[in-house]
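Bump. Still looking for LysE family transporter structure tokens.
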Amino acid sequence: MIGQAILEGALAGVILSVFVGPIFFTMLQLGVEHGFRAAFALALGQWVSDLLYIFLAFWGAIWVEEIIADEVKQATFVWYSGTIGGCLLILFGAGLLLTKSVSTAVSDKIEIAEHKVSKAAYFAYFFQGFLINTINPTPLLFWMGLMAFAINSNYIGGATAALYIAVMSVVIIADCLKIYLAKTIRDKLKAQHFLYVRRLAGLVLGGFGLVLLLKVTVL
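Sorry for the wait, here they are.
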């Protein structure tokens, strides 16, 4: 049973990893502008948020079942988290659209030294990743749905833990590969390209926020 749980968790991790959400474009923007460690700090915030949700789902299985089974409770959760999350994503997107990357003001042959990023900035990136992932209802619904799957599959104890560990392992490996790819792309870009990446990330974040806000308030 544990072996089956690992395989199913790995598959779920692949599905979650290929989903292109707002965190992906933020990770790309940070990786291109500030290098591996800045994007890794953002990804670390996302992973901590995921672990928090896993804890809630793992130790609150009854609560998870109640929310999934009750359409009213699920709709209420989605409305609150979607409204708050949509507004914050729009603000994050606007921030990227209205500000310039420090790299665009230097020269065409830009060298972005990772050691110039302050500890406070790394903490801000970590918090940004944590916040973007936490305010988005999709990750929590995914982890709750995974718990519902484990319950329906009669997974107990070690099998359920193996399922979650497999998912997170694949997600972490995939995110590290994405960050490395962004760092590799960075070495091939000129200074003005950094601004394009920043604007793209801002548009995508704002777009995700607007769609999320409209989905829970209008549609």
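Residues 103-115 have pLDDT under 50 and may be disordered.

Edit: fixed formatting.
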